[in-house]
Write a structure and sequence with these properties.
- It is built from 22 helices and no strands.
- By secondary structure, it is mostly helical.
- The protein starts with 8 loop residues before the first helix and ends with a helix.
Length: 594
């Protein structure tokens, strides 16, 4: 393996300063204001946050080190088709703003899954909470694994050591900082992320002669691709999979995920929350597009001498930190700033995840169990203390899961696979509740669990094909490194042929990971609705009149209009009855109709 540049003392100093700033923000909010002594302060910042920090926090919640490393590697390795996913962000924003968000804002609950108990029952709440655990813990492991790649590619520290060190820092930081510290750290994190991306693009443009030259080199290397419109679900990225799959993934993350709902509720009212989400969209798109372009910037340096074929690195996700060290190692402190950006991104993202996991665990499990056993409620200060212990505990679990993340392939695909497999059924069960009157608890749970089992099977079943990569070459490399490179090239050509020409793999294992979330949503929704209809036919009885606040505003208006029409019809049928009798007859007749 070729020698890799390492960080200097100035870089380590920059990293230490940046980490101290992140931890210092958490310590500051631990000992200021309400001092995180109550659930309201610790989990939703007493609903006192301003719009801009919340908007930025909504962007960087799940767009951290995975964005910096994974998206750039995606464009370098597979081309620019992935950038089409940004269309889905625009389509999804109004659906979240005017569909899901009003329902949760009226509920004003710490745990988003309290909605499912009110709409369906306690079993639905427990199932969804457990599924959420799986999703966020797995994702936390991936986020924790990403910085270890940067360390391995730049400093020579093993992945094992870096995962443990960063994981312990995350666990400590998460256990002392409330949601205020998390949100403010997100702003700091976003600045570091944008700085890192713009520095990379700027240096690449300076080296090759401008942004236009970066584009031209990428075009010659077949990296510019926006014309994949195939309807074949086994094609990795197409307009259909990125827009439909991206939309479902966006809705599952921003519409029904505890982390984003919790952040949206830290502002004073629904209008402020909607404004924050609309402001989030252009920032999210800018971050996504510039990170995609940074992959082309990196390609402009390595287009004639691919470091993977040279065996300089072992994974495409190491490309960005390798590029930083190759181009900035003579600038003391600049590589350290980049690495600090990755660390801060992961610290903040994992902190948000662990904070939300603690909230769900406390609200959905420990509090009900405690009340059932003792007959008393948790004391507010005791609840905050327990939440901090839970956050630390989940941090330790994330460390263990980080070691499994490397088995999932590239970190971008790993992250989106986790979101798709678990997010699809969650989106389905919430949409069943908010979008239909017919859905029952049994139908919703059966649909969600069936979808979850099916997606776990097709997402992690083996053997599965490797995705085809775009052409790479070592023609411009130093001749002394070509011996190993030649073997790598032959292996690469073999892999491409096998990936594109071999249909012997089981069909479901070849489906693009971008379709996992839509599949999970459709299975949950359609099967849940079918079983709900069947159960209502088999078990006839009076239906419970549901609170209109539990439905999408558009659906709630339709139900309200229909109920008024039913009451007016009964007024004509029973002109001399009082209002109580009319309501009783209305309830009986509506129940019969349903």
């Amino acid at each position: 393996m070729a020698e890799i540049n390492t960080l200097g003392w100035a870089d380590y100093l920059v990293i230490a300063i940046m980490l101290c700033i992140s931890i210092g923000i958490g310590i500051y909010y631990r000992f200021s204001g309400g001092r995180q002594k109550t659930m309201e302060e610790y989990f939703v910042a007493s609903r006192s946050m301003s719009i801009i920090p919340v908007a930025i926090a909504l962007v960087v919640s799940f767009m951290s080190a995975i964005t910096l490393l994974g998206v750039s590697a995606e464009n370098y390795t597979f081309g620019t088709q992935f950038v089409v996913i940004n269309i889905s962000y625009l389509l999804g924003t109004p659906i979240v703003c005017y569909g899901f968000l009003p329902v949760f804002f009226k509920l004003q609950a710490t745990s988003a899954y309290e909605y499912l108990e009110k709409r369906f029952g306690v079993r639905a709440r427990m199932v969804a909470s457990f599924v959420y655990w799986v999703q966020l813990l797995l994702y936390s492991g991936v986020v924790l694994y990403a910085p270890s790649l940067a360390l391995e590619a730049t400093t020579g520290i093993s992945k094992t050591a870096s995962i443990i060190i960063i994981g312990l820092v995350c666990a400590f930081y998460s256990s002392i900082g409330g949601i205020k510290a998390v949100l403010i750290t997100d702003v700091f994190q976003a600045l570091l992320m944008f700085t890192a991306i713009f520095v990379i693009i700027g240096i690449a443009a300076s080296d090759v002669g401008g942004l236009g030259q970066i584009w031209e080199i990428a075009k010659q290397g077949q990296r510019i691709e926006f014309d994949s419109i195939s309807a074949d679900p086994t094609v990795r990225h197409t307009w259909w999979s990125l827009i439909i799959g991206g939309l479902c993934t966006f809705l599952s993350l921003y519409g029904v995920n505890q982390v984003q709902i919790q952040r949206s509720l830290t502002v004073k009212n629904i209008r402020a929350s909607q404004t924050a989400l609309w402001l989030c969209w252009p920032i999210l798109t800018l971050l996504s597009v510039t990170t995609c372009f940074s992959g082309l910037a990196i390609y402009s340096k390595y287009h004639n001498c691919d470091p993977l074929l040279q065996k300089r690195i072992s994974s495409p996700d190491m490309l960005m930190p390798l590029y930083v060290m190759d181009t900035m190692s003579k600038m003391p402190g600049l590589p350290g700033l980049f690495i600090a950006g990755i660390f801060s991104a992961s610290l903040s993202t994992i902190s948000a995840a662990l904070n939300s996991l603690a909230a769900v665990t406390l609200e959905d499990y420990l509090k009900p169990i405690y009340k059932k056993c003792t007959g008393h409620e948790f004391h507010p200060e005791k609840s905050a203390t327990v939440a901090k212990v839970l956050a630390f505990m989940f941090g330790l679990i994330s460390i263990a899961l980080a070691f499994l993340a490397q088995l999932l392939g590239g970190i971008l695909q790993a992250g989106l696979t986790i979101f798709g497999v678990v997010g699809g059924p969650l989106l389905g069960i919430f949409t069943l509740g908010m979008g239909t009157e017919l859905a029952t608890e049994g139908g919703a749970i059966t649909g969600a669990l069936t979808a979850l089992a099916f997606l776990f099977w097709i997402a992690f079943g083996q053997p599965r094909p490797m995705p085809p990569v775009l052409p790479r070459t070592v023609e411009g490399c130093d001749m002394s490194n070509l011996a190993n490179a030649t073997i790598s090239v032959l292996q690469n050509v073999t892999n491409i042929a096998k990936s594109t020409g071999d249909d012997s793999y089981f069909y479901l294992y070849r489906i693009s990971y971008m379709w996992y979330c839509p599949l999970g949503f459709l299975i949950t929704f359609i099967l849940g609705l079918f079983i709900s209809s069947l159960s209502r036919l088999l078990i006839k009885g009076q239906s419970k009149e549901l609170d209109l606040n539990l439905f999408f505003p558009l659906i709630a208006r339709r139900i309200r209009y229909r109920r008024r029409a039913d009451v007016n019809e009964l007024r004509r049928k029973y002109p001399f009855s009082n209002i109580c009798e009319i309501r009783e007859n209305s309830s009986d007749e509506i129940g019969t109709k349903l």
